[in-house]
Design brief:
Blueprint: E1 2-6, E2 13-14, E3 22-23, E4 27-28, E5 57-61, H1 64-74, E6 80-83, H2 94-97, H3 99-109, E7 113-118, H4 127-131, E8 136-141, H5 147-153, H6 160-172, E9 176-181, H7 189-196, E10 202-205, H8 211-220, H9 229-243
Parallel strand pairs: 1-5, 3-6, 6-7, 7-8, 8-9, 9-10
Antiparallel strand pairs: 2-3, 4-5
Helix pairs in contact: 1-3
Bound molecules: iron/sulfur cluster.
Length: about 250
């Protein structure tokens, strides 16, 4: 893993993600190295070229908290931030740099809302911050119930069981929790529902949007059927039925 430190000129980026107006990405690149990652286009904004594999580098925005603080001071009203849109805010380097935590502390200080999305149990480290925020929800991305599938498609990300245990802990501590079942990977939807349902207030599900990126990999594991639109439609329908009113549009 190539880890380098960079400085940035802005922290809050306007976004049209439903429910929030801004995103904050403390890192460029992501050590979770998901093979289907939608954010690989970010490599062109990095110091790395197309020969550096996605997941093989992280650029750490070491001054992002200072910049965020300056930006928040200038805002006349409070708003809501999504952490994060093109990296995982709790990827392994966060353990050392604590940039996500520092950004959260600032957002809390200024009374802003936060929606977090991660694949890492490290998020539970910041339970104390979440508990003292006025508007916060924590989502966990889980696109399959199958740990073998996870190992192939999300080689640098934590195991599924650890993510679900973290959702359970967050919910038990009064934090609003949700699961992002996306992209839909080879899965047993009934089993995934059984594992997730007790620990989430809501879910969102979405299909596999960058099929070309993983087509070969899917085929080499015998997952051709799971690439089809028919498969995605069937899983959407089953998840919709099983989760019912927990499904957010
Ligand atoms: S955790 Fe998210 S941002 Fe990171 S590699 Fe996986 S899909 Fe991409």
């Amino acid at each position: 893993m190539n880890i380098s430190e960079i400085t940035v000129k802005s922290a809050l980026v306007r976004s049209n993600i439903p429910g929030v107006n801004y995103v904050v990405n403390p890192y460029l690149g992501c050590g979770h190295a998901c093979r289907y990652c939608y954010a690989i286009f970010m490599r062109k904004y990095s110091r790395h070229n197309q020969h550096t594999p996605w997941g093989g580098f992280v650029e750490v925005k070491v001054n992002i908290a200072e910049i965020l603080s300056t930006e928040l001071k200038k805002k006349k009203t409070t708003d809501k931030v999504f952490l994060s849109s093109v990296c995982d805010p709790y990827q392994p380097v966060e353990l050392r740099y604590k940039l996500t935590r520092r950004c959260l502390e600032l957002l809390r200080e200024f009374g802003w809302g936060v929606e977090v999305l991660t694949k890492s149990p490290l998020v539970a480290r910041d339970m104390d911050v979440f508990k003292s925020m006025i508007d916060v929800s924590v989502g966990m991305s889980i696109g399959t119930d199958n740990e073998q599938v996870r190992k192939v498609l999300e080689p640098g990300a934590p195991p599924i069981a650890a993510r679900i245990a973290t959702l359970k802990r967050l919910k038990e501590n009064g934090i609003s929790t949700w699961a992002f079942i996306a992209p839909i990977l080879p899965m047993n939807p009934e089993k995934l529902h059984e594992m997730l349902a007790p620990h989430v207030d809501s879910i969102m599900h979405d299909g596999l949007n960058y099929k070309k990126q993983v087509e070969k990999l899917f085929r080499s594991h015998g997952w051709e059927r799971e690439l089809s639109n028919a498969y995605a439609a069937r899983i959407h329908s089953i998840l919709g039925r099983l989760f019912g009113r927990k499904v957010e549009k």
